[in-house]
Structures are given as C-alpha cells and as structure tokens.
UniProtKB/TrEMBL annotation:
Protein name from the UniProt record: 3-hydroxyisobutyryl-CoA hydrolase
Pfam families: ECH_2
Gene Ontology biological process terms from the UniProt entry: L-valine catabolic process
Keyword Transcription: no
Origin: domain of life: Bacteria
Lineage: Bacteria, Bacillati, Actinomycetota, Actinomycetes, Mycobacteriales
Catalyzed chemical reaction(s): 3-hydroxy-2-methylpropanoyl-CoA + H2O = 3-hydroxy-2-methylpropanoate + CoA + H(+)
Residue spans crossing the bilayer: none
Residue ranges of every copy of the Enoyl-CoA hydratase/isomerase domain listed in the record: 19-346
Recorded GO MF terms: 3-hydroxyisobutyryl-CoA hydrolase activity
Matches recorded under PANTHER family: 3-HYDROXYISOBUTYRYL-COA HYDROLASE, MITOCHONDRIAL, 3-HYDROXYISOBUTYRYL-COA HYDROLASE-RELATED
EC number: 3.1.2.4
InterPro entries: ClpP/crotonase-like_dom_sf, ECH_dom, HIBYL-CoA-H
Length: 353
C-alpha cells in the first residue's frame, strides 16, 4: 500500500481481486465531502456486479486517523447563505452510499487506525468486517453541533452484536445521546468492531488481504482482546439498561433522575453538558423510531427527514460554529432546556416516514 496509483480525495482502484477505497484527505482528517461520497458510491456500484472483484477494503492514506466525519462546516456555510439544497443533496448522496455499503453482497473490510467519528462510522460499520487497531476510537458527537446521529448508525448500532453476545438497543441510544468515546475494547465488546490488529501491522495486513486472503491476514495479524486496555462499557451496562431503554428523552431523563447510581448519572450529565437540548430530544425520538424501522433504507429516510429539519434551525449553525469554526466550545443553544423543546414537531416528522 506504499505506492498509490492516483492522488484523488479517495483513491479507488482494484489490485488483484480486491477493490480498494483509500480515503485521502489528510488535512481534514478525511472528513467526507460530496466528491468523496460520489467516488465511493460509484466504485461500489461498479464492483458490486464485477465477478473479478471478490472483496473491498476501506482504509486511510494517513496515519493520523480513519475519518473524522462529514463536512458539516460546508453545510453550515451554505445554509447561512440561504442554500439548504446543497446540504440536502450531500446528505442524500451520503445516505445512499451508506445503504450501498450495508447491502453490498461481498466482503467489506474497513481498517480503522485512529479516529472514526460520525460519517467515518457510516463509511465503515456497515461492512462485514471492522478491523481496529489499538489507536482506534469512535464516537457519534452530533449532540454538540445541533444535529443527530445519522449515516445509518441509529439502525446498525441497535442491532450490532459483539463480545457482549446480544444486540442492545439502549446501548446505542446511550452512545448517540452522550457522545461516548469508545475505546478499541469498547468497540469490540459492543460489536462496532469485529477484529483487532496492531497499528504497526496495518500495511502488512492490507497487503496480505490483497495478495492472499482475509482469513490468512487475520490468522497472521489478529490479536485477542487483551492486546488493548479493558473498556468501560461492559461495566456500565446495568446502568445503561436501567436508564436509556425508553422511547423519549423525558422518560430517559426521569429514569436518570431517579437512578440509584449517582456516579453514573453525574457522568452522563457531564458528557451532555455541551449538548443541544433540541438534538437530545430529537435523537431520542429517532432511536425509538429506528428500533422499529423496516430496513436500513427506512432508517436512513428517518435520519434524512429529521436531519433536514435540524439543519435549518439555529442550533446546527451555532453548534458547528462553537465546535468546528470558532472552536470556543461555548454554544448558545435555543431553547436552552430540553423541557422547552417541541417534541411533537419531531415526532410528527418521523411518523410521516
């Protein structure tokens, strides 16, 4: 993987029987823009029915990380100029790519070495194999930017099964609403990741997949879970089950207020201190709706409809400003309390999908 045939924002090429999608926007930590989404989508469409392509690898050209998310700064700038249509087109295209990944009939190996947040999870978690290194970490940080967890994660993460042995919908709700940062151990335990390799072996692992097979590469380079530090999520599961297994933020908030583990509740409140109240309320409704979604296409439609509404509101512009533009981490969200958010407005959007 040292020599790259092109220098596009995504290097898409076939080597032997493997299609490779190498994210190549290192200065932006591979944040996905419309051009990158189109390259990935076009390659998947071509390779889907190409019998000479047996598998697909998704990786990064940079050692700094896998993918830090979608290019929401551009969406904010366009919205401030009165152009919401461009953002609509971008998210439509991105969500179609997410659907393609989830429904792709061949093996997809995402190699996550470093950060994978937001859209970075959308381009990795829908494939059959999510290979992480000890440097990997993941999060859905949308509450802080006045948005919602999306890219199909509100569908996939409610159904993923890892070392924990079962799908845990309330865990997905907890992860999305708190923006919890998952360690490699958390990712493997929850099912967000499937395999673990050393960061120093990434290039050799990819080369072995291409030259030999995925099974051979995993046999040579995979590590057991004790290769990395233990995670925290497993120990928090009883608290998460007791508090986040509800269909609305009002119910979750009530459960937290009456929960006996004060340390857990304080941790949750601290994680949510900079969250948009509107995003929190809307996200809880979205997770409840997508627990019952027919398929990922239905779930993505729910995410799109709710996200389109939020991108037209004050909190999205303000949140992106505070986190990604001015970086003062001091947003002024409106309304400032979850109790003042019109939950029926967002509930109605989801009921009409």
């Amino acid at each position: 993987m040292k020599q790259r045939p092109t220098q596009n924002l995504v290097n898409a090429f076939v080597r032997h029987t493997t299609g490779v999608l190498e994210l190549n926007r290192p200065k932006a930590l591979n944040s996905l823009n419309h051009e990158m989404v189109d390259i990935i989508s076009d390659a998947l469409e071509t390779w889907r029915d190409d019998d000479s392509v047996h598998r697909v690898i998704i990786c990064s050209s940079s050692e700094r990380g896998f993918c830090a998310g979608g290019d929401v700064r551009s969406c904010r700038e366009e919205g401030l100029a009165g152009d919401f249509d461009s953002g609509d087109r971008f998210f439509r295209a991105e969500y179609e790519m997410n659907r393609q990944l989830e429904e792709f009939p061949k093996t997809i190996v995402a190699v996550i070495d470093g950060v994978a947040m937001g859209g970075g999870l959308g381009v990795s978690v829908h494939g059959s194999h999510r290979v992480v290194t000890e440097k990997a970490f993941a999060a859905m940080p949308e509450m802080a930017i006045g948005f919602i967890p999306d890219v199909g994660t509100t569908w996939m993460m409610q159904r993923m099964v890892g070392e924990c042995g079962e799908a845990i919908p309330e865990l997905a709700t907890f992860l999305g609403i708190t923006g919890w940062r998952l360690t490699p151990a958390d990712m493997l335990w929850s099912g967000l990741a499937t395999d673990l390799i050393a960061s120093e072996d990434v290039d050799r692992f990819i080369d072995t997949v291409i030259a030999e097979s995925l099974d051979d590469a995993l046999e040579q380079y995979a590590h057991p879970l004790d290769f990395v530090d233990a995670g925290e999520l497993e120990g928090l599961l009883p608290d998460i089950r007791a508090t986040f297994g509800h269909d609305s933020w009002a119910e979750i908030d009530h459960a937290l207020s009456s929960h006996g583990n004060a340390a857990f509740v304080a941790r949750v409140r601290e994680l949510m201190a900079k969250s948009s109240p509107t995003s929190v309320v809307a996200a809880a409704e979205l997770y409840a709706a997508n627990r019952e979604a027919r398929d990922i296409a239905h779930a993505l439609e729910n995410e799109y409809a709710l996200g389109a509404a939020l991108r037209r509101e004050h909190d999205f512009s303000e949140g992106v400003r505070a986190v990604l533009v001015d970086k003062d981490r001091n947003p002024t969200f409106e309304p400032s309390h979850t109790g003042d958010v019109d939950v029926d407005f967002y509930r109605t959007i989801l009921k009409h999908r």
